[in-house]
Amino acid sequence: MKVTREQAAANRAAIVKAAARLFRERGFDGVGVAEIMKAAGLTHGGFYGHFASKDALAAEACGVAFKDTVDRLAGGRGLAKGDLAQYVDGYLSETHRDRRDIGCPIAAFASDIPRQDTGIQAEYAQGIDHFADTLIGRFPSLAGDGGDGRASDRGKALLMMSALVGGLALARAAAATDPELSTEILSSLKAELTRGDTAG
């Protein structure tokens, strides 16, 4: 039976969604095409009707993961605009630490990206760029003091992003063997990043 254009588009979207989740959870090299197709509810044989290669899927899945994350940040789901402390608290939470599959792609993909195809690397770099700009727009406390203008804004946003991602990565790395250290990393970093009422 011939698949309609609408069904083909829905199938492709399901593949990308499943891939974005599985790649975040286990890394680009930790999951194969057959498993992604099964998670999408489709047969392995249909993969190449949608994508030329696993790398092509990985690049698109990376882009979609970033778009979802940036859209959530821009929309502030459950956050008051400008409440950076609340955002930091959620980002550096035990729930985010433990749920790589639905978490921030910056942290999930960081160690994998240098070993991947340049198409995947390009999607990741573009995602970082958009994420930094979205942080600036979402949180006025990251805005510059008028001295450097936009450059100062970007610097503060990149510093905040690096601290969040690095802290989450360290907490994840320690979680299995030293959960107390993992929790200490999260709580200590939260305190430092929100010191002096950065939400204002």
Automatic annotation (TrEMBL):
Key word Transcription present: yes
Keyword Protein transport: no
Record's keyword terms, sorted: DNA-binding, Transcription, Transcription regulation
The name this protein goes by in its record: TetR/AcrR family transcriptional regulator
Domain HTH tetR-type span(s) in chain numbering: 9-69
DNA-binding region: 32-51
InterPro entries tied to this protein: Homeodomain-like_sf, HTH_TetR, Tet_transcr_reg_TetR-rel_C_sf
Record lineage: Bacteria, Pseudomonadati, Pseudomonadota, Alphaproteobacteria, Geminicoccales
